[in-house]
Amino acid sequence: MSDHRELYQETILDHSRSPRNKHAMPDANHHADGYNRLCGDKLSLYLKIENGVIEDISFIGEGCAISTASASLMTETLKGKRLEDVSPLFEKFHNMVAGSVEKIDDEEMLGKLLVFSGVREFPVRVKCATLAWHTLQAALKDNSKTVSTE
Ligand code: ZN
């Protein structure tokens, strides 16, 4: 685990400095805004969903390194995924960062998202890491109002 830590840290830094899929999407059919008042992270999420598949997903916003990297890695992970795969993945991710399970299972399913496994040691950062995912849930419900991680 600690062998991975440096690599995880590098991946988070890389995604926070050069976020993937960071742009607005004028023809999105789902959209939501998220705000983490604890840290000040702001996020707008855009999705294009066709026949139950996330054809495209992007975000814009300003936030700390963790929230930006999380949005970047989430969009990268979810592009091309079926909608029914989103909730199980979010559940695994949330259990990992919130530390509600002793042992992280389904490492294969989490893939690159494992870089956030260290967040569980910093409870104040959990909301930074999960902001993109909470905003995603709002976007999938087509809820246009700003979600709060409170
Ligand atoms: Zn933050």
Describe this structure in words.
By secondary structure, the protein is α+β, with helices and mostly antiparallel strands. The protein has a single domain (3-143), classed as Sufe protein. Chain: A. Helix content is 41%, strand content 19%. It is built from five helices and four strands; from the N terminus they run αβββααααβ. A four-stranded mixed β-sheet has the order 3-2-1-4, covered by helices on one side. A hairpin with a 4-residue loop joins strand 1 (30-36) and strand 2 (41-50). Helix 2 (65-78) crosses helix 5. 36% of the residues are buried. The mean pLDDT is 90. Zinc ion is lined by residues 36, 39, 41, 63-64, 66-67, 128.
How would you summarize the topology of this molecule?
Elements: H1 2-17, E1 30-36, E2 41-50, E3 53-62, H2 65-78, H3 86-98, H4 107-110, H5 126-140, E4 147-148
Parallel strand pairs: 1-4
Antiparallel strand pairs: 1-2, 2-3
Q: What is the second-level CATH architecture?
A: Alpha-Beta Complex
Strand order of the largest sheet: 3-2-1-4
Write down the overall geometry: globular
Question: Fraction of residues in helices?
Answer: 40-55%
Low-confidence stretches: none
**How large, in whole angstroms, is the Cα Rg?**
14 Å
Proportion of strand residues: 15-25%
| End-to-end C-alpha gap | 30 Å
The averaged pLDDT comes out at 90
H/E series:
HEEEHHHHE
The CATH topology turns out to be Sufe protein. Chain: A
What is the C-level CATH assignment? Alpha Beta
Number of strands: 4
> How many domain units?
1
Count of separate DSSP helical elements: 5
Instruction: Give the biggest beta sheet.
Output: 4 strands, mixed
Structural class: alpha+beta
Bound compounds:
zinc ion
